[in-house]
Design goal:
- The complex is a heterodimer of chains A (379) and B (208).
- Chain A is of the alpha/beta class and 379 residues long.
- In chain A, strands 1, 2, 3, 4, 5, 8, 9, 10, 11 and 12 form a ten-stranded parallel sheet that branches. In chain A, strands 6-7 form a two-stranded antiparallel ribbon.
- The relative contact order of chain A is 0.14.
- Chain B is α/β, with parallel strands linked by helices and 208 residues long.
- Chain B has a single domain, classed as Flavodoxin domain (Rossmann fold, 3-Layer(aba) Sandwich), CATH 3.40.50.360.
- In chain B, strands 1, 2, 3, 4, 5, 6 and 7 form a seven-stranded mixed sheet that branches.
- In chain B, helix 1 packs across helix 6 and helix 2 crosses helix 4.
- The longest helix of chain B has 19 residues.
- Classes of the chains: A alpha/beta (379), B alpha/beta (208).
- Chains A and B meet through helix 5, helix 6, helix 7 and helix 9 of A and helix 2 and helix 7 of B.
């Protein structure tokens, strides 16, 4: 099972002292969090993608490329990549490039984005959210799997004899997750392709996650990718920990009360009861997280949100220490002992490569327009 | 015997509340009429005051806490709805509006609704027609023709057999008539049900 962190990349004032970090500080904090994630033995770092303040990660592959160069083991991912407003051609190129630089330590999570005004900035309309996600992703898959693509669709300029470069590393496209909170069409999409499904889980009642994962599993089996319990499921989680649970609650409460999304609404206690948010001791986080399995089944990836709402970097890094030292080793052991042998791990570059029958050079060499010959044919 | 349910939403803030009193009388009038037509009737009161904080939390977080979910399901799955609000500043009060703002979009489509209001003066009575009725029209509910407004004088004086009483009876029969014409309500729609297949979704990609 994979464990990691996912970040939204919000620049938010620290409500306890009124301090507002700069974008530069926040970006550097995100890289520090990623490096720390590897250091403490986590498996995954995933960044959000946003194109409006107060968020900084508009250019995920730049950020992930920097992190790739300074890590050895960490899997780099997204939470989410906007499949609606990005050109699928650019996603194909950017993430294939990242895949090469990171030697395969890359996967992606597709998402639609829920901020209406962002769509027209990129020539789109939020009312087409689902059709954009369907059409763009179908093209993206072809761009990674077919060397030369002829294509015509509703939302983008047609392509004729187009080759997306670089080709995926070893001819194996990155594994893809589809993230959604409550759109059954996206669970259906993930199931159709046999891709992973990631339930954001946090900020919402568990019933949403339970229903969406249940639908995805059922359709995964329907489309013949394996039995329902072999589908590839990821979940979000949101935690704040101190050794002593009262200290965690006391320290986190002002951040909770003023947080974007849910601040000034329900109490910390109500939100903790109704959503996966867990504020307390490492043992409480262990118990709560093991409980997720009871309503989604055995799953493959658990990502925690630990760095939003203006929490200072120091406190965030302390969360990572607690995750790495006390929480994740126990969860790994417990989840592994509960999981039946026929339930797979999340696919990685290595496992996809093995399934594809081993390494091949997938380079597509240029063809001379006049003679129609590739350079090597002339030799 | 047909089983019918009537959800009774009251946005009164006082306890006891004249708004709740009117709501109960309207519900009882509709029930009596339905029983007279041979139906069994269950009345399910929804006192919005008890859900006030949850309604605000729903507006802020996008999902209802469990108790509010139950109230919303009560309204969505009822065969008929009695909805009564005090009039504040020439319109429904904020609690009443906020509650219907978080009702699922299609939950009231074709649902018979009896609207009522209370106020400190009879001069507020047309608020039912210019504020409450249009909101239910927007929600595609079927608001019965008689709306019932109770001013302070309606609760006093000639009381039991006065004009208010007659109006309540007429409105109750109108609601019963609309409920009676319809098959039993099917309950809230499942937002997680898959209503399409991937083949259909993918087919949508062809240029129009």
């Amino acid at each position: 099972m994979q464990f990691g962190v996912f970040t939204v990349g919000d620049v938010t004032v620290d409500p306890t002292n009124g301090r507002l970090p700069s974008e530069h500080e926040r970006i550097k904090a995100m890289t520090a969090i990623a490096l720390k994630a590897e250091e403490v033995g986590l498996d995954v770092f995933a960044t959000g993608e946003h194109h409006n303040p107060p968020f900084v990660p508009s250019s995920p592959t730049t950020l992930l490329g920097w992190i790739a160069a300074r890590t050895e083991r960490l899997l780099l991912s997204t939470s989410t990549t906007l499949i609606t407003t990005n050109d699928p051609v650019k996603i194909a190129e950017d993430y294939a490039m990242l895949q090469h630089l990171a030697d395969g330590r890359v996967d992606l999570m597709m998402g639609r984005g829920n901020t209406g005004p962002v769509y027209p900035w990129f020539g789109q309309d939020i009312r087409n959210g689902i059709p954009l996600a369907i059409e763009n992703y179908d093209l993206l898959r072809r761009l990674w799997r077919e060397d030369v693509v002829d294509w015509k669709g509703r939302f983008r300029t047609p392509l004729q004899s187009f080759t997306s470069t670089p080709r995926p590393l070893d001819g194996v496209p990155p594994f893809v997750w589809h993230g959604s909170i409550r759109s059954p069409e996206i669970a259906e999409q993930a199931a159709y392709y046999g891709d992973g499904f990631f339930a954001n889980h946090i900020f919402w009642p568990k019933e949403h996650t339970q229903r969406m994962v249940g639908l995805y599993r059922q359709r995964f089996e329907h489309y013949g990718h394996g039995s329902a319990d072999q589908a590839i499921v990821g979940l979000g989680g949101q935690v704040f920990m101190r050794k002593n649970s009262q200290d965690a609650v006391r320290e986190f409460r002002p951040y909770f009360d003023n947080a974007p999304v849910y601040g000034h609404g329900p109490s910390l206690e109500e939100f903790t009861r109704e959503t996966p948010l867990t504020v307390g001791s490492p043992q409480q986080v262990i118990d709560r997280t093991l409980g997720f399995r009871e309503y989604v089944g055995d799953y493959q990836r658990q990502l925690f949100l630990v760095d939003h709402a203006g929490l200072p970097l120091k406190a965030v890094l302390e969360q990572l220490d607690l995750l790495g030292e006390e929480v994740v080793p126990v969860l790994r052991k417990e989840f592994d002992s509960l999981r039946p042998a026929h339930v797979p791990e999340a696919p990685t570059h290595a496992s996809l490569l093995a399934a594809a029958g081993g390494t091949k050079d997938s380079t597509v060499h240029a063809v001379d327009d006049v003679t129609g010959k590739a350079p090597e044919e002339g030799r | 015997m047909t089983r019918r349910t009537l959800a009774v939403v009251s946005a009164g803030l006082g306890q006891p509340s004249s708004t709740r009193l009117l709501a109960d009388q309207l519900a009882a009038a509709a029930r009596d009429e339905l029983v007279g037509r041979g139906a069994g009737v269950e009345i399910r009161p929804v006192e919005l005051r008890e859900h006030a904080h949850d309604v605000v939390n729903h507006l802020l977080t996008g999902f209802p806490p469990a108790a509010l979910r139950e109230a919303l399901d009560t309204v969505a799955s009822a065969d008929g709805l009695v909805a009564v609000t005090p009039i504040f500043n020439a319109s429904y009060n904020g609690l009443f509006k906020s509650f219907f703002d978080v009702v699922d979009r299609d939950a009231l489509a074709d649902k018979p609704v009896l609207i009522g209001a209370t106020g400190g003066t009879a001069r507020h009575s047309l608020a039912l027609e210019h504020a409450v009725r249009p909101m239910f029209a927007y929600l595609r509910a079927v608001a019965v023709p008689t709306a019932v407004f109770a001013a302070p004088e309606d609760w006093s004086g000639d009381g039991a057999e006065g004009a208010l009483r007659a109006r309540i009876r007429r409105a109750g029969s109108e609601l019963a008539e609309q409920v009676d014409r319809r098959p039993a309500a099917t309950g809230p729609a499942d937002p997680f049900a898959l209503t399409t297949s991937f083949a259909e979704l993918l087919a949508g990609r062809d240029p129009a």
